[in-house]
Amino acid sequence: MSSRPHGGVERNVGYHNELDDTVSSSEVQAKLHAEITRTIGKQLFAIRDRSEIPYVEAVILETLRIGSNVPLAVTHFVNEDVSFRGFLIPNGTTIIANVTSVHHDPSVFPDPFAFRPERFLDDSGRILQASEQVIPFSMGQMSCIGESIARIELFLYVTRIVQNVEFKLPAGCKRTTLNGVFGITYRPEDYNVDIAKRNLKI
Ligand code: HEM
């Protein structure tokens, strides 16, 4: 299979979505901060600490799921006839993977439009297998080459930011929708936030 070229804008978009969901839910933010405070306080996180703070992982997973930053992945085309589940896909056919649809399948993710990080945690707070159904980087040989670095960056970025600052919607502002701006990437509409430094004496 061959790919059609695309730009590399999903990185900022992914991180923007991450902030977006954190801002929208003060409850999620408070839980994130509590978990970070309990495990490492104000020290710098290392990637090895990841398993210690599964709620952070769950928030990142849920953001990648609901945000589906690259909603239709990258288009590919088959460069020979392919037989797939009884269908013939002729040489030259364009293939579009609908990542958003996968992420909103109610049989896999009940109440799929609700932002609910707990769906990825078991009763003892560990990450569930369901996390493997989240495929923001697509799948297979042509999947995102930056997946590992993106996952590490997201973890370090979210923990460091939540450790140090708190996001609030300005007085009188209310985000009532998760609708965003659709393109090669999907991103939240612009809106204002207040950012307050946290008291770092933990
Ligand atoms: C949240 C962050 C990111 C998301 C959601 C994301 C998602 C994706 C998706 C869905 C694809 C298409 C895969 C396919 O064709 O099936 C892709 C391709 C690609 N991504 Fe990412 N990506 C992210 C971050 C990054 C980063 C940090 C880098 C580089 C350091 C990167 C580099 C690439 C490249 C080079 C391709 C094209 C691969 C190819 O066509 O051979 N991505 N990405």
UniProtKB/TrEMBL annotation:
Recorded family membership: Belongs to the cytochrome P450 family.
Transmembrane intervals: none
Keyword Iron: yes
Residue sites binding heme per the record: 144
Pfam families linked: p450 (PF00067)
Iron found in the keyword field: yes
Cofactor: heme
Name the UniProt record assigns to this protein: Cytochrome P450
Signal peptide per UniProt: none
Any one Gene Ontology molecular-function term assigned to this protein's record: iron ion binding
Keyword field: Heme, Iron, Metal-binding
GO annotation, biological process: organic acid metabolic process; xenobiotic metabolic process
Any Gene Ontology CC annotation: cytoplasm
